[in-house]
Every structure is written in C-alpha cells, then in structure tokens.
Amino acid sequence: MNKPDDSGNTLTIKDTISSNIVNRLFAGYANIGGFGNSTANSNIANINATININGTSKLMIRGGYAYVNTGSAQANSNKLFINNSIKSYISDISGGIAEIYKDDVIANSNTVDINTNIDSTLKNIIQGGFAKVGDTGNADASYNTVNINGNIKSNGSNSIYRGYADTKTGTATATNNTVNLLSNASFTTNTHIYGGDVWINGTELTYQDNFDQVAKGNTLNIKTKNIKIAEIKNFEFVNFYLPNDIKANDTILTLNEASTDLSKSKIGVG
C-alpha cells in the first residue's frame, strides 16, 4: 500500500489481544516504494488492554512509521502509551520510526510511556525515535522521550534507546533525548539503557570520540531506587531524585557491566 502521509491518527486498543495473528499495532503507517516524501507525524497509540502473543512471533507496536526508497522520511511527535500488561516472545515498541534507502530521515520528538509490566521471553526493544538510512543520507533521532513506570522483564535482553540513528554514508545524530525511570520502574539485570545509539557504515560511534553526536543533551532521570541493570550509555546528564522512603544504606542504581563510562557526564542529586 502506497500512502505518503499517515498523520494525526489515534489508535486505542480496548479489548484483550491473545493470539499470534495480531502482532502489529501501528497508529500511523506511511509507505512509499519509490521516490517522494513519507510522513507519519503526530499519531497517538493507546494500549489499554492486555496483550498476550503466543508462540515465537515478534510483537511490534508503533506510534508512527514512515518509509520511502528515495526522498525524505519523517516520523515526528508521535505518542505511544502502554497502559496494560504485555506478554510475548519479542516485544518491539517504538514511538516513531523513519526509514529510507537514500536521502535524509528524521525521527524526532516522539514519546513512549510505559505504565505497566512487559514480559518477553527472548528480548524487549523500546525506542523513542529510530532513524535509519540504508545507503547515503543523514539520520537524526533527537528530542525523544521514554518514560518507564513498570517492570521490564525478559530472559534474554532489554534494550532501551531514547534515540537510534544509523546511516551508511552521511551524518547521524541522537541528541537531546530523555529517559525517566519513575517510581514503579524495575528491570531484569540484562538491561541496557542508551541516551543515543549512533552507527555510521556499520561502526558504532563512541561516547569518548563522538560525544556531540551520541550523548550531547541526553538526560537520564532516576526517580526511584533499587534499579539493577547492565549499563547506562551516552548520557550527558544523569540525575538522581531521591524518593521519600530513602534511608541509610539504600542503593539507587547498580550497574553490573564495567563498560559504563560517565567521565564526561554531569551527575546531579535532588
């Protein structure tokens, strides 16, 4: 289906989904096979009912998705609210995804709110904005927000990206993104939380060498305690907001991978 613009929609799931047949829920889906402008902006997805996907199918939930071969693709200002529990083999949850083969792509100012538990057998992928160029062009995934207020669980891994940008030849940036870990947030220890994740020609850009592209303006706000995860990565600001029930010898954050680098980051306590 060729649809260059699919913006301004609202998708609300009110009834339980319990099958492996329905595994794609998109509020906006813009797809052009050839040349043109593809936009999926300002869509809203409300997941208000339980989802239980059987078997080994991947569950994909998108606020907005835009694809074009050549031209421009944008998935901006989409909002995705997960308000009831999800259980699946793989859960792939994104506020906005924009993909293109050649030319520029933008996935900015998207929001993902998770207010419940997500339990996946193999892995969970949670992204604010995702921008990918297959060949030549610029990718930008900035000003996205992910709010976590539930338990994110898997037997494999959890990857949480505020912004993900990828191109073969060109520039890629994932900056000014925010993640908030709220009072009910918890994770299995195999969780990796990224402010930005940026790739050019198959090489991941690093915090030390490419700070302005992968970490600049990215903020992690932790508003709970007893968070135990693998690592946090590519944040300029890490802020700890001590909960009211904090007491002596409590632990706010435990990281179990030595690779975490915060040498250029600013740490705040409030």
Comma- or semicolon-separated keywords:
270 residues, globular, nine-stranded parallel sheet, 13-stranded mixed sheet, single chain
How large, in whole angstroms, is the Cα Rg?
A: 18 Å
How many domains? The number is 1
Mean pLDDT over the residues: 96
The first-to-last residue Cα distance is: 50 Å
Description:
This protein is mainly beta and 270 residues long. It has one domain (10-269). Helices cover 1% and strands 56% of the residues. The strands form three sheets. Strands 2, 4, 5, 7, 9, 10, 12, 13, 14, 16, 17, 18 and 21 form a 13-stranded mixed β-sheet that branches. Strands 1-3-6-8-11-15-19-22-24 form a nine-stranded parallel β-sheet, with no helix packed on it. Strands 20-23 form a two-stranded parallel sheet. The longest helix is centred in the C-terminal third of the chain and has 4 residues, at 211-214. The radius of gyration is 18 Å and the shape is globular.
